[in-house]
Design brief:
It is a single chain. With 399 residues, the protein is α/β, with parallel strands linked by helices. It folds into two domains: 2-146, 3-Layer(aba) Sandwich (Rossmann fold), CATH 3.40.50.300; 151-397, no CATH class. The protein contains 15 helices and twelve strands. The chain has helices at residues 2-14, 23-26, 44-56, 78-87, 104-114, 151-159, 168-173, 175-185, 188-198, 208-230, 238-251, 258-265, 269-281, 309-315, 321-335, and strands spanning 33-38, 63-67, 92-96, 119-125, 142-146, 285-288, 303-306, 340-342, 349-351, 355-360, 375-379, 389-391. α4 links the parallel β2 and β3 (92-96). α4 (78-87) packs parallel to α5 and α12 crosses α13. The protein is globular, with a radius of gyration of 22 Å. The two termini are 40 Å apart.
Length: 399
């Protein structure tokens, strides 16, 4: 226990408090059981440590922070930890990376039954199954999903420019006013171009090569460790999954040909579809369908995108700016919980079953969405709207 107390002090004292994401204010930390899930690298650990330091200070006492791959848990159980923590007057237990502890769900359930005065906040992979875990915690846990940085958050993190988030409907209705506010604070276009390259993960340190290397490490860890643990992927096939990602990085978006992918990977179609769905759950891909209401688990997607624009620059040999723009729109809108569908003949995307978007450069016109109600062009390389032709970067203010 003493080793955990020392590690708590060291880790909480080292966390940077200069910028705290707004997610912190959206989490009901006071609830008995809170889960924070998200892809590796999006900042779950930093947010938890910042909250502890801000709320409880550096010293362990009422709060205790533990990483569950600690050597301590090779000879001790979570139940033992909770018992000792309760005896010393502890109130709030923070358990980071619970998926690295095999019986996490069973023991957490028992802890909250035995010690109802102890609150537990835990974090885990985006692949973490709360509903279908060994002990079903779904009716007891308040679950949050953490995303990478929006364009708006990137401006705050790296440019010290603080601007509000807007609902999508307000962006579409009051685009002129919002653009005036943003343009008064900065020239967003060059910063947006930087965001597309290095802005999504909050670990950019002004060294692009190092940043892309860290992204590759994130991808390798997800495929080799998390997908084998949570998705039943045979470790012998992880190289093929990486090959699939690299292939998609150079070829998406396109009308998906599962037969062609199957031949390329030397895998059957059902296995390829299963891997695509797992990569979506792991937040490495977006799978788009023309009608989300009728999607079945093993249905072929209509379009595939990498999860965020930075992945293209890290994995692709020749990134296509048109693909990157579309990927940005899908990423930002899905992160802000909008329903995004493949538009087919009605623009690139249908959003919330009411808005239609065509994405392109500054010269993009309305030919493909003429006479479609509630249709808009999201155009790159412009800083002010022209009618229903809006700056692409505006979509980065939805969260």
């Amino acid at each position: 226990m003493e080793s955990l107390l020392r590690k708590h002090r060291m880790l909480i004292s080292q966390v940077n408090m200069s910028i705290i994401r707004e997610n912190m204010n959206n989490i009901a930390w006071e609830k008995q059981l809170v889960a924070i899930r998200g892809s590796r690298g999006v900042g779950k650990t930093t947010l938890i440590r910042q909250y502890i330091r801000q709320t409880y200070g550096i010293q362990a006492g009422e709060a205790l922070y533990c990483v569950l791959d600690s050597l301590y848990f090779t000879t001790h159980t979570l139940l033992e930890l909770a018992e000792r923590f309760h005896l010393m007057g502890g109130k709030h237990l923070f358990l980071d990376e619970v998926h690295k502890y095999p019986t996490w769900s069973i023991e957490i359930k028992e802890i909250i039954d035995l010690y109802p005065d102890i609150k537990i906040t835990f974090s885990g992979s985006s692949l973490l199954q709360i509903l279908n875990a060994d002990a079903d915690l779904s009716r007891r846990v308040l679950s949050y999903t953490m995303e990478g940085l929006s364009f708006r958050e990137f401006l705050h993190f790296y440019k010290n420019i603080e601007l509000p988030a807007y609902k999508l409907a307000d962006i579409l209705t009051y685009a002129d006013d919002i653009c005036n506010i943003v343009n008064t604070s900065c020239h967003p276009q060059p910063m947006f171009e930087e965001y597309l390259r290095v802005g999504y993960y909050p670990f950019y340190n002004h060294d692009e090569e190092e940043y892309y290397s860290r992204i590759e490490n994130v991808v390798n860890f997800i495929v080799e460790q998390e997908m084998t643990q949570f998705c039943g992927v045979d470790p012998a096939y992880t190289r093929r999954i990486k090959a699939l990602l690299l292939y998609l990085a150079d070829h998406v978006p396109y009308e998906v040909n599962i037969a062609k992918l199957s031949m390329y990977l030397e895998l059957n179609k059902q296995t390829v579809l299963s891997y695509l769905n797992s990569l979506k759950r792991a937040e490495l891909l977006h799978l788009l369908y023309s009608d989300n209401k009728t999607v079945t688990r093993m249905q072929k997607p209509d379009k595939i995108y990498l999860h965020n624009p930075n992945l293209f620059f890290a994995l692709s040999q020749h990134s296509n700016i048109g693909t990157i723009r579309e990927c940005f729109v899908v990423n930002q809108l899905e992160a802000s919980t909008h329903n995004v569908e493949y538009g087919k003949l009605q623009g690139d995307f249908k959003v919330d079953n009411q808005f239609y978007f065509e994405v392109g450069g500054r010269d993009k016109d309305f030919t493909q969405i003429a006479n479609i109600p509630n249709s808009y062009i999201l155009a790159d390389e412009i800083e002010v709207p022209v009618g229903k032709k809006l700056p692409l970067w505006l979509i980065g203010f939805t969260y």
